[in-house]
From TrEMBL:
<keyword id="KW-0411">Iron-sulfur</keyword>
<dbReference type="InterPro" id="IPR036884">
    <property type="entry name" value="2Fe-2S-bd_dom_sf"/>
</dbReference>
<dbReference type="InterPro" id="IPR001041">
    <property type="entry name" value="2Fe-2S_ferredoxin-type"/>
</dbReference>
<dbReference type="InterPro" id="IPR002888">
    <property type="entry name" value="2Fe-2S-bd"/>
</dbReference>
<keyword id="KW-0479">Metal-binding</keyword>
<dbReference type="InterPro" id="IPR051452">
    <property type="entry name" value="Diverse_Oxidoreductases"/>
</dbReference>
<feature type="domain" description="2Fe-2S ferredoxin-type">
    <location>
        <begin position="3"/>
        <end position="88"/>
    </location>
</feature>
<protein>
    <submittedName>
        <fullName>(2Fe-2S)-binding protein</fullName>
    </submittedName>
</protein>
<dbReference type="InterPro" id="IPR012675">
    <property type="entry name" value="Beta-grasp_dom_sf"/>
</dbReference>
<keyword id="KW-0408">Iron</keyword>
<keyword id="KW-0001">2Fe-2S</keyword>
<dbReference type="Pfam" id="PF00111">
    <property type="entry name" value="Fer2"/>
</dbReference>
<dbReference type="InterPro" id="IPR036010">
    <property type="entry name" value="2Fe-2S_ferredoxin-like_sf"/>
</dbReference>
<dbReference type="Pfam" id="PF01799">
    <property type="entry name" value="Fer2_2"/>
</dbReference>
Amino acid sequence: MSKTIRMIINGKKEVFHIGHDDGYGIIPDEETLCETLRERLNLTGTKLACGQGACGCCTVLMNDVAVPSCQILTAACDGADVVTIEGLHDPKTGELDPLQQAFIDKYAFQCGYCTPGIIMALKGLFINNPHPSREEIGEALSGNMCRCISQYHVFNAAELYMKQNA
């Protein structure tokens, strides 16, 4: 008998069964949340880079906390509410989340590979601390690596978001 995992992912109920059969919705117990999101649900905004939780590219929100999805087994996510970068937009209007728009307005991305993880790390911070200091923003971003952008653009986007959502 396989274990059943129920989650809410981007507002949608998802059910998986843990096992090693090849059936639909059956995932191995060693599959990470990142793999499940990317390979099974085609939520490719969650990037897999280092696979060790050090770069932040795979960051998602789990129960409103930013977490590295490459370090969490899907089997351990029963009952979790997961939000990926694809789940931030307004489902009724299709508009981007204000934090995503702030990144566009402040040119806070270049190649974009790490941007979803950075946005999700900041979103987790703002959910739990709507008015963080610049130091707290830096601490929230300490697990995210970007090789092609000056971090001040990201700080500018975070500050714009705070100003517009005060």
